[in-house]
Write a structure and sequence with these properties.
It contains 6 helices and 7 strands, in the order H-H-E-E-E-E-E-E-E-H-H-H-H. Strand 4 and strand 5 form a beta hairpin. It is globular and about 50 Å long. It has one domain. The longest helix has 31 residues. The protein has a 7-stranded antiparallel β-sheet with strand order 1-2-3-4-5-6-7, with helices on one face. The protein starts with a helix and ends in a 31-residue tail after the last helix. By secondary structure, it is α+β, with helices and mostly antiparallel strands. Helix 1 packs antiparallel against helix 4, helix 3 runs antiparallel to helix 4 and helix 4 crosses helix 6.
Length: 249
């Protein structure tokens, strides 16, 4: 099952722009902001062209890897997000890499609840940037960005809202599948006591989830993949906890 079109398009917009501003953070005249945050920088071996890899190890052992073509979140096994598609796939990484084709065989993510920690980490990174260097700096990072952009002052909140909406849709979809299974096993007499409608969040939310579910069933691949991007920059919601910093490889 694919993400609903609305959710996927929001992810495409945010992630493509996010990779651009990470590139601006790298090129910041006063110093590389990713390094300041706690990332390790690893360039491709001499004679090999490719994207520089930035690696951040959280206190939990989870590893975040950033490249010009996307990002990875996990340990040896984790989730890869392509910069242009926002189609989460499960990947295994045991070594540093510089090209998307080095990721090897990947399979589509089946449990979209796994996206939530990734998106909330990005939200917390953006909140850290705004708190540390202000909204003006983030706006300056979008100079030269010619595509549709998300408001840099609210990107942290938009990432957090996308995480919540994907989680909400997936929770609703799971409830829908469970109810379908119940309907197949019980007659109408039992159904009245066996089924609990997922309407506690409000009728409007349920209707939105139903629309997202219909879209996901009818959606196809969206976007394109440019795997030759060499750098990350080329081609607040309250309560968000900052990830632990300074825990490097």
């Amino acid at each position: 099952m694919s993400l609903p079109v609305d959710l996927r398009n929001r992810g495409i917009l945010l992630l493509n722009q996010q990779c651009w501003v990470w590139g601006r953070d790298i090129l910041r005249p006063e110093g590389n902001l990713l390094i300041e945050y706690g990332f390790d920088k690893t360039k491709p071996p001499k004679g090999i062209e490719g994207s520089t890899q930035y690696t951040f190890k959280m206190a939990s052992g989870t590893i975040i890897r950033l490249w010009g073509f996307g990002m990875f979140y996990g340990r040896t096994r984790g989730i890869h997000l392509n910069r242009y598609e926002f189609e989460p796939r499960v990947a295994r990484i045991t070594n540093d890499l510089w090209h998307a084709d080095q990721l090897g065989p990947m399979v589509p993510l089946r449990r979209y609840s796994g996206l939530r920690p990734i998106l909330l980490w990005i939200a917390s990174y953006e909140e850290w940037v705004l708190t540390t260097y202000g909204r003006t700096y983030r706006k300056q990072c979008l100079i030269g960005w010619k595509k549709k952009n998300a408001n840099p002052g609210s990107v942290s909140q938009q990432w957090a809202e996308l995480a919540d909406d994907i989680h909400l849709w997936w929770d609703y979809e799971g409830s829908h599948q469970r109810r379908t299974g119940i309907l197949a096993r019980f007659d109408s007499t039992h159904i009245k006591t066996a089924v609990t409608p997922p309407s506690t969040r409000g009728l409007s939310i349920v209707r939105t989830c139903r629309r997202w579910t219909r879209e996901s069933q009818n959606s196809g691949a969206v976007g394109h993949d440019d795997e030759n991007t060499n750098t990350l920059g080329e081609s607040p919601r309250k309560g968000i906890q900052y990830p632990p910093r300074g825990q490097q490889n």
